[in-house]
Amino acid sequence: MKLFIFLLVVTLHTSPSYSQVQVKLGHLKGHVGDSVIVCGEIKGGVYLPNANNAPTLINVGYDYPNQLLTIVIFGGDRTLFEGNPETDWIQRKICVSGRVELYRDKPQIVIRNTNQISFEE
């Protein structure tokens, strides 16, 4: 019995919660540092091949500079995604999973693989 209680306590104490919370697009600032799932419509994007890390920036909710979320794909990961996300994904509804960060007071999620996104048709 002591072993069971010990294992239960250790399991509950050492198992961090890795579950992702579904968050509304406009509420991301309250979830900085959290791993979330968020959905919205892509309104625009830009690829910056000459910038540091050659990012692709995808604006969700509204176009830049009023976007509610920026999806970031760094140059090293860009080849994992077909076509040109900054143009091919416009007007599509996307769901993204990942950790919310702030960049210049705007929420962003960096995606590093195709498993982090899904499109609603």
Q: Overview of this structure, please?
A:
The chain contains three helices and eight strands, in the order αββββααββββ. The model is unreliable at 3-17 (pLDDT under 50). Helices cover 17% and strands 37% of the residues. The radius of gyration is 17 Å and the shape is globular. By secondary structure, it is an alpha+beta fold. It has a single domain (19-120), classed as OB fold (Dihydrolipoamide Acetyltransferase, E2P).
Which architecture does the CATH hierarchy give at level 2? Beta Barrel
Q: How would you sum up the global shape? A: globular
Structural domain tally: 1
> What would you call the structural class?
alpha+beta
What's the CATH class label? Mainly Beta
| Distance between the amino and carboxyl termini | 52 Å
What is the CATH superfamily classification? Nucleic acid-binding proteins
Radius of gyration equals: 17 Å
Number of strands: 8
According to CATH, the fold-level topology is OB fold (Dihydrolipoamide Acetyltransferase, E2P)
- What do the pLDDT scores average to? 89
Report strand %: 35-45%
Question: Largest sheet, if any?
Answer: 8 strands, mixed
What is the count of helical runs?
Answer: 3
Unreliable residue stretches: 3-17
Into which percent range does the helicity of residues fall?
10-25%
Order of helices and strands: HEEEEHHEEEE
